[in-house]
Amino acid sequence: MELICVGLNHRTAPVEVRELFAVAPSKLGEAATELRDKIGVEEAVVISTCNRTEIYVSGDAGAVRQLEELLGGAEHCYHRTRMDAAVHLCRVASGLDSMVLGETEIFGQVKDAYQAALQAGVTRGVLNRLFQKVFSIGKKVRTETGIQEGATSIGNVAVDLAEKIFGHLKDSEVMILGAGEMSRVTAQSLQSRGARSIFVANRSYDRALDLAQQMNGHAVRFDDWQLVLAQVDVVIGSTGAPHTIVHKAEVEAVRRKRKFRPLFFIDIAVPRDIDPAVAEIEEVYLYDIDTLEQIASEARVRRAKQIEVCEAMIREELDKAKLPGL
What we know:
This protein is of the alpha/beta class. The chain has 2 domains: 2-149 and 304-321, 2-Layer Sandwich (Beta Polymerase, domain 2); 154-295, NAD(P)-binding Rossmann-like Domain (Rossmann fold, 3-Layer(aba) Sandwich), CATH 3.40.50. The protein has 13 helices and 10 strands. A 6-stranded parallel β-sheet has the order 7-6-5-8-9-10. It has a 4-stranded antiparallel β-sheet with strand order 2-3-1-4, sandwiched between helices. Helix 6 (125-144) runs antiparallel to helix 13 (304-321). The radius of gyration is 20 Å and the shape is globular.
């Protein structure tokens, strides 16, 4: 049995393709179990974030084609085996393969994916040893290199975009849809830039209230977010909903009350929160997660020299580990 990785990400597939294969965090263990049973591999871990869906298995080479078919065929997929797969996972966990170079969220997301598979009983010797080593290497890369200097989160990049749009955020009112980790990071960044008011809407009102209190903001019951839409300048979509939640008709309904002021939507959710048709409204501007690539690339240039240092560290640590399946 050998280590195999098959996946698609922001470089190989646009957001409209990625969202088709996104797996909710609560379903990762179930997805790994179904995968193991369907493909007949010994072990499986499924990683799914806004920028990627990747499958790691311990199996034979014939599993590659089956895994690619599960992700819509080879057109948008890449695959790695043995040492190349281990190096790729280390790059992912270290933020080297992210849209925002050195981003912080991905390390926790990889940990959560592994934990879900472990609790589901679908990891054994190969993947257990691999992921434990990857977490050790990821920590070493982040603490001993400069890869995290500058903006390292999608949330921060979204706020960079909002600030470029307005010049500054001190007079702006912002609503965040969602109260998860990405929303928390985004809200903290908004607060640090001086946004005048922050509203948090979430299906769990208690979670919205908790985040809003941390930010000295205002919690909004999810069914009431349209009422707040009439007064805000920026809406950031970051829920885990399986479908769009903001539609053109809902925005059209508040235009007159807003006196047709510009309204900016920044959608960092996958699947997307904002229906693309919203952008057809004259004074409305919509940016999805792929749009953030331009800002992210600026940070990538500044830290490009650190990539070689990180990758040499990854290779050295994996060579010393002598992991099974490689």
